[in-house]
Amino acid sequence: MDADRPLPSPLTPEAKPFWDGLREGKLRLPRCAACGHVFFYPRVLCPKCQARDIGWIEASGKGTLHAFEISYQTFNRAWKIPPPYVLAMIQLAEGPRMMSNLINVAPDPKVIRCDMPVEVVFTKVTDEVTLPLFQPEGAR
Amino acid sequence: MKELRNTVCIVGVDESDEIGILPGKSQLSLHLEAVSNAARDAGLKVSDIDGVFTAGQHSPALLGEALGIRPRVVDGTTVGGCSFIIMVGHAVAALNHGLCDVAVISHGESGKSQVGVSPRRDTSLTGPYEIPYGFGGAPSYFGMITVRHMHVHGTTLEQWAQVAVSTRKWAALNPKARMREPLTIADVLKSRPVVYPFNLLNICLVTDAGGAVVLTRADRAKDCAKKPVYVRGAGEATEHVMLTQMRDLTFSEATRMSGEKAFAMAGVTHGDFNHIMLYDAFTSGPPIMLESLGFAKRGEGVHFFEEGRSTPGGSLPINTNGGGLSYTHTGMYGIFPIIEATRQLRGECGPRQVPGASLSLVNGMGGMLSAAGTLVLSNDGVR
Predict the structure, then answer these.
(1) What is the ipTM of this complex?
(2) How many inter-chain contacts (A to B, CB under 8 Å) are there?
């Protein structure tokens, strides 16, 4: 299948459980076994207590829209989705933030609000890659 | 750092021979022109330079080679556009320790025409975690900071636009500025939408230019061609690279830390400044910097850009060269506010001269308020 967007690259070994989980419809996040801190992006050291014992949890997929932008142009030749589209910074319920897109919503600053509740939509891009996009809670 | 206060001076500054859209000049040529011009401004020879500081695609080793000198100390710290501002502090340390006697901080970037540039380097982390969602240029990130600030503090699109209007008034007085026609808030709001909350005129120019700053110890500075400008205080800090890792999108922790260090070294406080240069890649940047530096309460930095305050003839002039918004912005803008502050403190600025400018603040960001560099510059060496 042809991707409608740039594929994630490089896929690094320390993040493999994240990418594997997405293919199975699970949003996994790294969690420090020493202090319990849940963080993103994946890395081999806890950014809160610097411990090296990192495990994984399955996140709820719930969160809020921390910040957003509505792009009227594309920034990458591999991006095939016509603008406008919504760039999103998601505040996950478990603590960390991640970048994504807000979908199933009108690209209108009068409609989209910071801190609105959102939920994950697992979106298959290729056989190998599924991305965690988000929509307003209960949309569609 | 207090003991280093006023021990080092800026003795030479200049841009490349031309700035603007320069398809006929390579990035390396912009560097070499700027270094050559800044050395001449100082009354020194390029061969007097024995410390080379530069950020970006070209290493200080390459620059030394191209200049035909063999530097005794090099620094290639590259933490975004404020790197050149940070390097002033590094040069102060190196000069005091005798690692070099004449330092040059050089910038050259063919940001628009892309002549003689290396392939763009992304961090390994934007590729997997940001690019697949359509992120790309700086506007696709800095808008997040801006939207969150509007949500938390109630700032408005009209207030951000006022920053562009104020800055353009200064550009009108600078013959080197690229955009000099008068601008209104309505013009900003009507310009092409790029990425909400930014229309085109909320975003800096993209140009080709070089700039360089020459420094030496205060005892030697007295023998240079022009009145020395003293590095009274310098600070630096970094917080994050990936925007998701910034603790509070509406407040730059790196800027707070950098500013506090610079003010403590200088022994000055907010009310002492009569000239300010702030890195303006986006209209929302300078107000947020003023809040992070402690000049304004959170959400109130925009008020500094009202008519009669930051504007020509105003009580606290800001971005008197016309800024990245209207004068020039190559990509890594940080060398240019140092050049302008030096010229203001020397009294060289003609129609845009700030009368009595004696203490200038230079504050720059790297990335998305990720890194910060702050300078306190003065035209007297009183300790």
Answers:
(1) 0.95
(2) 111
Are B194 and B200 in contact by the 8 Å Cβ rule? The answer is: yes
**Which chain A residues contact residue B245 at CB under 8 A?**
47, 97
Sort out which chain B residues have CB atoms less than 8 A from A114's CB and list them. Answer: 147-148, 151-152
Task: Evaluate whether the domain defined by B2-113+204-378 bears CATH number 3.40.250.10.
Answer: no
Report the pLDDT value the prediction gives residue A50, as an integer from 0 to 100.
96
What pLDDT is attached to residue A140? 76
CA B239, B242, B246, B249 dihedral sign is: positive
Mean residue pLDDT of chain B comes to 97
The answer to whether the CB atoms of A69 and B140 lie below 8 A apart is yes
**Residue pLDDT, tens place only, B175-234:** 999 999 999 999 999 999 999 999 999 999 999 999 999 999 999 999 999 999 999 999
Q: Where are the domains of chain B?
A: 2-113+204-378
The Cα of B13 is separated from the nearest Cα of chain A by a number of Å equal to 35
**pLDDT tens by residue, chain A, 140 residues:** 689 999 999 999 999 999 999 999 999 999 999 999 999 999 999 999 999 999 999 999 999 999 999 999 999 999 999 999 999 999 999 999 999 999 999 999 999 999 999 999 999 999 999 999 999 999 97
Helices B335-346 and B83-96: angle between axes, nearest 10 degrees: 70
Terminal Cα distance for chain B, rounded: 13
- What token pair was written down for B105? 């901080």
Q: Parallel, antiparallel, or unpaired for β A62-71 and A54-58?
A: unpaired
How is residue B162 written in tokens? 């006022």
Judging contacts by C-beta atoms under 8 Å, the chain A residues touching residue B137 are 75
The share of chain B scoring above pLDDT 70, in percent, equals 99
pLDDT at B288: 98
CB contact under 8 A, B133 and A99: yes
Distance from CA of A102 to the nearest CA of B (A): 10
Per DSSP (E only), the strands in chain B are 8-15, 51-54, 73-75, 102-110, 193-196, 198-199, 208-217, 229-238, 275-278, 359-366, 371-378
Nearest C-alpha in A relative to B194: A72
In chain B, residues with a C-beta closer than 8 Å to the C-beta of A7 are: 132
